[in-house]
Write a structure and sequence with these properties.
Distance between the termini: 42 Å
Helix content: over 70%
Radius of gyration: 20 Å
Strand content: under 5%
Structural class: mainly alpha
Shape: flat
Order of helices and strands: HHHHHH
């Protein structure tokens, strides 16, 4: 459910950015109705496990619905190549931090962040152009 919440939230913000939040009301309403019916049906039978799986379903549903609205509006398709490169950089950073000697956690976080940033740039998960676009414009 956490991954679905992440993507649902990200695409939900994108829906606002492309000014389609009114058109998206149907998706949120459908999600609420489906989840409520499923909670009322499955919790008495399966208890907490049923509730957990309904939550997963509801989050995946809204992530898919918000992505569909973004795709329909912009034809945006996420780059799996970039995601793969970022995942490899994250894995390598985690391995690097795991072999560091015992030190204060803030130092490990600092080394991890610096290592990830360097790896993401070296692996071209982040380009210099992207970094320039993220920097504030000079007045």
């Amino acid at each position: 459910a956490c991954a679905a919440v992440f993507f649902g939230s990200m695409f939900g913000h994108a829906v606002i950015a492309v000014k389609k939040q009114k058109a998206m009301v149907w998706g949120y309403a459908a999600d609420a109705v489906l989840a409520t019916v499923l909670y009322l049906t499955l919790i008495p039978i399966y208890g907490a496990t049923g509730a957990a799986w309904v939550t997963v379903f509801a989050e995946v549903f809204i992530a898919c619905a918000t992505y569909y609205m973004i795709w329909k509006t912009t034809r945006f398709v996420p780059s799996l190549r970039t995601a793969f490169r970022a995942a490899v950089a994250a894995f390598l950073m985690a391995a690097f931090v795991a072999v560091l000697p015992e030190m204060h956690v803030l130092l490990k976080v600092l080394f991890g962040a610096a290592g990830f940033a360097a790896l993401a740039i070296l692996m071209r998960a982040v380009t210099p152009q992207t970094l320039r676009e993220l920097m504030p414009k000079k007045a």
